[in-house]
Amino acid sequence: MGTTVTLTHEQRVREERLVRDNLPLVQYAVNEVAHRVPRQVHRDDLVSAGMLGLTQAARSFEEERGIPFDRYASRRIHGALLDELRSRDWASRSVRAKAREVRQVTEEMTTKLGRTPTSDELGDELDVEPASVQELQADVHRATVLNYESLAFDGPAEGLLASGEESPEQTMITRERQAFLTDAVASLPARLRKVVVEYFFDERPMQDIAHDLGVSESRVSQLRAEALSMLRDGMNANLDPERLSPERRPDGKIARRKRTYYNRVAAQTDPLERVSAEPRDVHEKVALAG
Q1: Using alpha carbons only, what angle is made at residue 178 by residues 86 and 54, rounded to the nearest 5 degrees?
Q2: What angle do CA 279, 282, 287 make, to 5 degrees?
């Protein structure tokens, strides 16, 4: 049984004040997320989840740590919104099944035509209106963005992906970061790559991944943590090298292995390709990377 926490009067007053004074943070976070998720996700559900995150932040906030409450609360609110979206499983149950069909048909038609098929051609092949194909592709892109954010928020790569209304310059920076994240995932050793792709992008339960790998769930959790650390360093090496921690033995085996990984990330995609288009689907990238 869980332990019931009894708040003093002063603690309740403090918590209520923090929630009341920071209500705009919830609306800001909901506005930021709402335009990037499918239409069937109701705004009221997002607001409720955001309020839960704000309340939890007010209850657990420790002022003596020196972190501003608005920054701390924004992170908790963002996490609560992602949890709400994950719990609904809309990406895996509705969008993802159709996306796999579209991807398969697209690959078959690309091989047959020698080029990428148009929306009209895909619509004819799938026996749906071209507008429906475009709508599905938009939902797939929203699903991809959500999974990029889930990955970044869950691990130490948090904060690398920008969001909200962006200037053209910021859009290019965001695309570059997303491309580097995709390249970093594709460059992981096969075992770590499987854990990241299936846990974050395919949203498979950790228990199922553990069964496939023949290991315990705790081992999968360790592999996930190792992969996230590599992703963080792989992106920092290419985007902000000064953030890398110095190696204790620069010529040692571990340091050489890390440099090999950083170089593989850098070589995955042409620099112009990273900023000139939306990031490639992670499954496609992983398949090409082998």
Answers
A1: 40
A2: 125
- Asked whether residue 32 falls in the same domain as residue 59, the answer is yes
H/E stretch holding 236: helix 217-239
Structural contact between residues 145 and 247, judged by C-beta atoms closer than 8 angstroms: no
Q: Are 205 and 224 part of one and the same domain?
A: yes
Length of the chain: 290
Question: Domain containing 200 — which CATH number?
Answer: 1.10.10.10
The answer to whether residues 174 and 233 touch, using CB atoms and an 8 Å cutoff, is: no
Tokens of 228: 């996230």
CA nearest 75: which of 61, 89, 64? 61
| Domain co-membership, 94 together with 19 | no
Each of the 290 residues of the chain gets a pLDDT tens digit; together they read: 444 556 677 878 888 999 999 999 999 888 877 766 666 677 888 899 899 999 989 988 888 778 888 888 888 888 888 777 766 655 555 566 676 677 778 878 888 888 878 888 888 888 888 888 777 766 665 555 555 555 554 443 333 333 444 566 666 777 777 788 888 888 999 999 999 888 877 767 888 899 999 999 889 888 988 888 888 888 888 888 887 888 888 888 888 999 999 999 888 887 777 776 555 666 666 666 66
* Domain final residue, candidates 88, 105, 129: 88
Rounded-to-integer distance, Cα 115 and Cα 138, Å: 21
Place of tokens 């999968």: 220
Which residues form the domain of 52? Answer: 9-88
DSSP at 252: S
SS3 label, residue 166: coil
Complete DSSP assignment for 43-56: HHHHHHHHHHHHHH
Final residue belonging to a domain, choices 134, 149, 164: 149
